[in-house]
Structure formats: C-alpha cells, structure tokens
Amino acid sequence: MRAAWLANHREPKINMATLFKYYKPLCSSIRFTSPFTIPPFRYAPNRTRPPRTVPVTGKRRQFFSFFSSLTSSLPVLNENNSGPTSGDGAASPPSELWLYNTMTRKKELFKSKLDGKVGMYVCGVTAYDLSHIGHARVYVTFDVLYRYLRHLGYDVSYVRNFTDVDDKIIARANEVGEDPISLSRRYCEEFHQDMVSLHCLPPSVEPRVSDHMPQIVDMINKILDNGCAYRIDGDVYFSVDKFPQYGRLSGRKLEDNRAGERVAVDTRKRNPADFALWKSAKEGEPSWQSPWGPGRPGWHIECSAMSAAYLGHSFDIHGGGMDLVFPHHENEIAQSCAACGDSNISYWVHNGFVTVDSEKMSKSLGNFFTIRQVIDLYHPLAVRLFLLGTHYRSPINYSDALLENASDRIFYIYQTLYDCENVIGEQDAGSEDSAIPPDTMNCIVKFNDLFAASMSDDLHTPVVLAAISDPLKIINDMLHTRKGKKQAKRIESLSGLGKIVQKVLTILGLMPTTYSEVLQQLKEKALRRAKLTEDQVIQKIHERTEARKNKDYEKSDAIRKELSTVGIALMDNPDGTTWRPAVPLALQELEIGTP
C-alpha cells in the first residue's frame, strides 16, 4: 500500500529541512511567533537596511529543482509581530516590503506616498502581434506585486497601457492591408485572453494612446514652454542637453548614445540623442491635429502623459521589463520632469529577461515563443509556476525541461489539495471548528512566517515555492500513511494546512477554480506532448496487465519505460493501474537549474 501511494504521490525533492540546512547561518536569527496564532509579518523595528544577498552556486542549485536563481537571505523576524488581520488574511496596517529600486541600485523599504494607497504604472505591450513568453514574465511579475500589495492591505491603483499608435503597428497594418487602429484593437483583445489564461488580474485602468491625444499634446506644449524641446518642420524633439540628469536611471552617458543604434538618425537634430515627442504626418499613416500640424506622438511621451493623467506626476511604482530601462524609461523621466518640475517616481522596478540559449527572447531576434504556442502544450498555471520559479530580477532560460518540471510540480500540488479536500468533505462540517493541534499549528506558522519574510524581501517567490513542500508532505502523510490516518484531530490539521497553502497559492495567482478540472487539463496537456490519446494509454495499460498476469515482466517493464519516456507514469494500486503526467525520462536526467 505504501509503495502504491508513493508512486501516485511523489513527494517533491524540496523540503523545509533541506531549505534550512543550506540557510542555517541565516535562519539562526529567525524567531517564530506563538504557534497558536497566525500574525501579520513585520520586520524588526530597528532594521535600517534590506537583507544582504547570498548567492547560491554549484550543488546548492540542484535542490531547488526548477526554482533557480534564489539569491537573497531570509530577513530577521520580529518576535513581537502580533497584530490584527482582516477577514481575508490581509495585514492591517500594511507590513513592510523591500523592493529593488533600479534608480538607486539597491533594495529600499517601500513607503507609499499616500498612507494605505499605492499608484503603480506598468508599461504595456505594443499591440501588433501575439504576445510572447517574455511579455508573460513581465505581467506575471507585476501581477504578483499587485496581489501582494493588496494582501498587505494597500488600495492599489494599477495602470497598464496599450500602445496602439506606433511604427511597428503601422508597418504590420500595411503588410496585411488593415487599418492600424483596427489591427491594434484586435491584438489588444488577444492579449487580454492571454492574461486571463495566465491568471493575471485586470489592472485598474488600461489606457490606450489613441484615446489620449489631448493629454499628450498638452504635455508636449509644457515641455516646449519650459525650453526643453524644439520644433523642426512639424516634428518636435526633446533636447537632452536641457536635462542635465539624463542617464541617471540607466547609468549611460550622453556620448554612449550613438546615432543609429538606440536613437533614430536625423541630421536635423541638435544632438543625436534627442528623441521625438511628435512626428509629422506621413502618407498612409494615422494622424491627429496638433499646434505643430497633423501627426502622431513619439513612443516615449505616451507613457509620461497617460501615467500623469491617472496617477499624477508623482506616484509610487513604475515598472516594466529590463529592456525598457534605456531608452524608454530614461526618456520618460526626462520628459516628465521637463513638463512638471515636481515629477517624481519613488521606485523603478524591472524584471529580468527570458532567454533562449543565453540570448534575450525578442521578436526582433526571431527567437521567441508566443504565449499561445506555449500554453498549447503546457497548462497556463504550469507556465505561471515556471515564471515564478526564478526570482523576477534574474534571467530565466526558456526550456522544455523547466516547463516539464513545473507541470509535474503543479500536478503534485493540486492532486494533494484535491485529495485533502475530498477527505475533509467526508467529515462533519462542525469538526473544523475544533482547535488545531500545536504541532500542526507550529508548521502552519513557520510556513506563514517564511512566506511573509520571503515575499517582503523583494518578492522572493522561489523560496516560497520551495517551502510549500513541507505542508504538502504533512498533508500527504495524514492522507495516506497508517500513522497519519491515526493522528489526533486529523481533519482539523488537514483543514488548517490546506487553508494556509490555498492562501499562499491565491496570493501568487496559482489557485485554480476547481482542482478536478485543472488536474484533468494537466493530463490532457501531457497526452498532447506525448502525442497519445487516453485510449492509447489505457490500451497500453491493458497490455501491461496481461503481460504481468503471464509473468512476462520484460514486456511489462518495456511498456512502463515506453510510456515514461514520453512523460506518462504508471501507478499500480490494489484496484488496478492508473496513470499521471510525469517528467519525460530523458529530461529527468538533466540537472535542472545548473549553469
């Protein structure tokens, strides 16, 4: 029986004992709270700097499986960190959060400009094609930040724009013979579908460039009035020489901005680094009226104008991919400050690249996979788990091996919770009100504290995903082992453990509508990758059963290996043989997460 259960519920390689083994020097400073309450998390009040970073190299990477790039230590917890929580578990007042600020190049304690409120602007897609997995990483990253800020009790105004007026859109529209605005609108809807699939919450506002021409024109006028821009034949250019702080975000010097590389070649410009605020109308392109004649805005001005329209000139967080640091965000800072001297963004947050063979994934390089292509073979929640398995600022290499491991991992998580839910459902509802045993509550509190510490340390999702193994292992022991089934207050323990795992999954955006539905979908994706139907798998199971009856163990083992090679694992139980998705045999031999 035990062997059959182990085959069906493979415990993950990652557990809390291993986690603390490698981080013992750091964890020695952690003090946990009373095992009878689950308090909100706060840093020790005398903490004046963010936790130091400790690199993980060599063999230590291996125990993280696909959770690579774990690089920060665990912060000290305050032993007196009890406090009120709201009904949904959100802390009140908000717990402390450290975020890496690209502007200062260090982690900083997050403090919102308005008490209890956060303004966050994230640069959206240029809608001219289907979005790729690199885009998925950007918006999953900021979806987690959005969710976590809300969990901490903040009222978040999350603005994410659509660029629907751009050179790339016009070029694609001309290729296919479609109106540029119509084409862009179509791909905006495709993007929405991708975000729903990836469990990204909708932002508070999704402004589009084409709807904000008055605000863009007004901002350009202010920049001109303040002497930081100039007009040439219907075009308007920003003069970088008028902004001495140009380059402070990226660390680039003006002499580094050679014409033809990251800036457009135009001999009319006073400085090759000057960039367009307004482009005069050209035949076959959409245009709008302005004081300088018909035309359309440059790329950078749109985000400055739209962020100011919804969040004001001074707000908390501006985010996007690392590729936007220069020139886009550098130019945003220059033009926003030129339009309004009080312009100020507290935290500039950027996520790392998705790479393919150590090169950044991008449409221009032609080495990209669209979100649609990836989720055709892998469940969207497995893709989300894959993206969260690496710290958001580190590069993540796209590979089938990592996605297979993410799929295997998430199947294990949902199968465990599904089994837990079924057992609890068979009991009297009133029994859940009883006290949870101290040993179980101690595990719950430790996991909760580690979750809070890791998330508050610049959103260290890999640590959280590694730590989730501990409560899941205890749940499986209580569900399937003789000792676990006899444990006092077993149902109460299962309920408490299940709830804390569900809480964390919800904050990470990994909570499905129903476990049964997502488990079936994961099996269907596995069959598609294996290029098999379920009927074909069942036929193989019948053939193997017959071989075993005939004591033809060589054939039996060959069938098992044939299926495991393509990612189908067989489990022998007293009631017969069933199957579940698994990492294909060849990929199991790879060292996941090693350089």
Automatic annotation (TrEMBL):
Primary localisation category: mitochondrion
Pfam family, one: CysS_C
InterPro entries linked to this entry: Cys-tRNA-ligase, Cys-tRNA/MSH_ligase, CysS_C, Rossmann-like_a/b/a_fold, tRNA-synt_1_cat_dom, tRNAsynth_Ia_anticodon-bd
UniProt keywords, alphabetically: Aminoacyl-tRNA synthetase, ATP-binding, Chloroplast, Ligase, Metal-binding, Mitochondrion, Nucleotide-binding, Plastid, Protein biosynthesis, Transit peptide, Zinc
A molecular function GO annotation: ATP binding
Domain Cysteinyl-tRNA ligase anticodon binding: 543-580
Cellular compartment(s): Mitochondrion; Plastid, Chloroplast
EC number: 6.1.1.16
Record-annotated tRNA synthetases class I catalytic domain positions: 114-407
This protein's record includes keyword Ribosomal protein: no
GO terms for biological process, alphabetical: cysteinyl-tRNA aminoacylation
Entry GO CC: chloroplast; mitochondrion
Cofactor requirement: Zn(2+)
SUPFAM superfamilies (alphabetical): Anticodon-binding domain of a subclass of class I aminoacyl-tRNA synthetases (SSF47323), Nucleotidylyl transferase (SSF52374)
Annotated HAMAP family: Cys_tRNA_synth
Family to which this protein belongs: Belongs to the class-I aminoacyl-tRNA synthetase family.
Record's protein name: cysteine--tRNA ligase
